[in-house]
From TrEMBL, chain A:
Superkingdom field: Bacteria
Stretches of the chain forming a coiled coil according to its record: none
Gene3D superfamilies assigned to the protein according to its UniProt record, in alphabetical order: Periplasmic binding protein-like II
Name of this chain's protein: ABC transporter substrate-binding protein
InterPro entries to which the protein is assigned, alphabetical: Bact_solute-bd_prot1, SBP
From TrEMBL, chain B:
Sequence ranges assigned to domain ABC transmembrane type-1 in this UniProt record: 101-317
Alphabetical UniProt keywords: Cell membrane, Membrane, Transmembrane, Transmembrane helix, Transport
Entries under InterPro entries matching the protein: ABC_transporter_permease, MetI-like, MetI-like_sf
Species: Cellulomonas carbonis T26
Protein name (Swiss-Prot/TrEMBL): ABC transporter permease
Amino acid sequence: MHTRKWLTLGAGIATVALVAGCGGGAGDGDDTGTGSGGEGGGDEKVTLTIATFNEFGYDDGLLDEYMELNPNITIEHKRAATADEARDNLNTRIAAGSGLSDIEAIEVDWLAELMQYSENFNDLSDPELEGRWIDWKVDAATTADGQLIGYGTDIGPEGICYRADLFEAAGLPTDRAEVAALLEGDWDTYFEVGKQFVAKSDAAWFDSAGATYQGMINQVENAYEEDDDTPIGIDHDTVKDIYDAVVTASVDDELSAGLRQWSDDWFAAFQSGAFATMACPGWMLGIIEGNAAGVEGWDIADVFPGGGGNWGGSYLTVPTHTEHPEEAIALAKWLTAPEQQLKAFASKGTFPSQVEAQSSDELLSMTNPFFNDAPTGEILVNRAEAVTATPHKGPNYFAIHQTVQDALTRVDVDKTDDAASSWDKALQAYEELGLE
Amino acid sequence: MATVTPPRQGTPAADGPRTPAPPRTQPSRLRTTLGRLDVRLSPYLYIAPFFVVFALVGLFPLVYTAFVSMHDWHLLGGQGEFVGLDNYVDVIQQPTFLVALRNTFSIFLLSSVPQVLAAIVVAAVLDANLRAKTFWRMGVLLPYVVMPVAAALIFSRLFADGAGMINTLLGGIGIEPIRWHADTLASHVAIATMVNFRWTGYNTLIFLAAMQAVPRDLYEAAVIDGANRFRQFFSVTVPMLRPTIIFVVITSTIGGLQIFDEPRMYDQYGRGGADKQWMTITLFLYDLGWGPQKSFGRAAAVAWILFLIIVLIGLVNFAITRRIASAGDIARTKKTGGVR
């Protein structure tokens, strides 16, 4: 009796699995003729793949919601651990001409290098969506002849995230308004307070020289390239001064925890409390919360050294390789609508680039329990308003930026070089790029 | 069938004298021609698949890579101008190239040498009378089944500078933590460890097979001569394994010089470290082609340089093989002569 019951159940499961398997297979490949009802394109079973990186905030039910609204659509989400990895994947697959997802997320730092090859992406411009995003977000993704290659998702207005418990132990104020007042000013102020902090604490002031440099360079309009994309390189005062300032603070003043961002040690440091503050764009909130789970004391202050700053932010593109451009564009459009972006923000802190979302009461009233119930919505809106410089990121931005980041890693993390010898290697690496 | 008929009409004169009965000419001519074709062509057809596949996936890419290496070629932009040997000159002049070459050879030596030595010793142990022989023999092959990327991920956790298990253990016995990612030599040791983990068992099985082919009378003779276990191992087993050792050395040279997965997965960035501590030639190639430069032309040039290096080392290996193989023959005649 029991055996038979189990057999029946087993057979049932096997059948369901078979049917599901068939459905998936048909959706993946050639889907002509799989429309069961035959009532036209709308009911066709379509499987869409979407490739993102880090935390986009789509896994907390957003994709499921879309599938419920559109029963014929199945979405597969591929998530890369880092933006670099996603960039490698995307480049390789564009070059190979296959294997691309129907929607590929791209980061603003490597947007420009893809803009040169915009023929690989569907034109997403749509009069209906005029005014959905803030202007510079759209302008950056629009080619000279008016093609829009991606829909903006989030932007990265930066605040300062800090560990209130470590602040308290070192005798610094813990209330986020007081911390904001304490850090108000330029980067020197930030480093000065850092020196006071490390004098009384075992922890470092910030996580890595690289991240701090990132925050500073993102306040410079033309760090590596002129507005017409002519490379100006790294051998000039703007970059060198920032490099020197970061190295002095990180190594000489021992403010840095000496961790390379995204390394195993960096992730582990969220649990061990190795540092007290970090530059904190909206999307970083989700990463901190994910890796510092169980650690109490994280908070975010409405302040950023040297005025405002924007770090990162992404777009959703639809490569021309997709077999389902219509469905993919519809999904990208839906995901980047203000309502959905607000939900993504609530989930992972990816701050909306959409005008309507930025001014919504829903955003302004949003708080984040992990960050001591900080009004993250209001804080990030303020931080977004404080952003004054829009750095020009041309096709070689990413490559040039990498040479300085490597130099900082050598000094700050690996300690294989001192500031001067590492800078020489950066100059050499820049030369090897062969840009001039 | 239709394709083989034409030659029949072309060769009647040659076939004529050999076919005696006129009425049966038609079928027997066909048969003989087919038979002859069968004898002449079949061997080539039998070996053809290998050469067809080789031409497609070996020779064509090789030639095409050479073609790409002579051009400005962008990953996304495609073919550009013909530049001759400029890419080769550019690449060789970059200091990074020398660093990559150094790293590749260092990791290769750190992995291959201990690996071959360990494999011989483990094989000798497995060759002895053990209980549950098959279990142990399959056991050493187990790491080989693990995907290199998966192994690299786990090992890079073990070798994390701050929070890694190995440094925690070292700290437990009072040894200073080793900076696995910052220090060049330490990073090479860590990567070589991954390679050894994966390949030692594989080479062990090859050695084991060779050991079992050693004639047992040699050992009997050695025992009569009063040789103990160690003497037998060094005077009988190792000399008899020489050809196999050469084979293993050549295959691990080719594999070692092309090492990619392990260094690529050694950190989150996959670019061989900020100071290029563990950037190998293949990583350098990848960085040129898919990194900031996106220059397929230069990447292809590196691919060809690597190919030439491997050919060169292959030739050196071959020369040594011939000398050692003959030395092995001498050892064999000596020993067998001793028995008789």
